[in-house]
Amino acid sequence: MSEERKKRVALIASKGTLDMAYPPLILATTAIAMDMEAAIFFTFYGLNIIRKGRNERLQVAPLANPAMPMPVPNLVGAIPGMTAMATTMMKGMMKKAHVATLGDLLEVAVEGGVRLIGCQMTLDVFGIAAGDLIDGVEVGGAATFLSYAADADVTLFV
């Protein structure tokens, strides 16, 4: 009698802004809540999500972000202070909707067994030490992630 394997979710996080940090973490923590396996490969600016002390400082970039829910022209995002305003607005919207903070989501992910993989090449390129990453992150290259993703039922680049 063979045991059925859990469904597997493989995610890539390559952007390090507040609004782009939530999707991979929400998807991965939801997957483990649904009794699936999950892994997130953090590469390029996505590494900021898992750097110690960085995730609470991530910001929303209003410039060249036409989806921003602001009733003003996109060019207004270039005005000094707009990034801080957009970030405060986003954090307020998340809090009002009772959405967990990034720190809370990362804690759930680590405790729940989400495989958090920091890209070795990106660490090398940006001069980031593995010790600069939060506890629970493994360092691996593209081959590490692709070995996991090869057997995934869902693979997303978010």
| Beta-strand percentage range | 15-25%
Radius of gyration over alpha carbons? 17 Å
CATH superfamily of the domain at 8-61 and 102-157: DsrEFH-like
In CATH's first tier, which class of the domain at 8-61 and 102-157 applies? Alpha Beta
The helix count comes to 5
**Strand order in space, largest sheet:** 4-3-2-1-5
Kindly identify the CATH topology of the domain at 8-61 and 102-157.
Hypothetical Protein Ychn, Chain: A
The count of β-strands is 5
The main pleated sheet reads as: 5 strands, parallel
Content-based structural category: alpha/beta
- The residue ranges in which pLDDT falls below 50 over 5 or more consecutive positions are none
Task: Describe this structure as you would to a colleague.
There is one protein chain. The protein has 158 residues and is an alpha/beta fold. The chain has a domain at 8-61 and 102-157: DsrEFH-like (Hypothetical Protein Ychn, Chain: A). The protein is 36% helix and 16% strand. It has helices at residues 18-33, 82-96, 102-112, 120-126, 142-149; strands spanning 8-13, 37-42, 115-119, 137-140, 154-157. Helix 1 runs parallel beside helix 3 (102-112). The longest helix is centred in the N-terminal third of the chain and has 16 residues, at 18-33. The chain is globular. The termini are far apart. The model has no long low-confidence stretch (mean pLDDT 89).
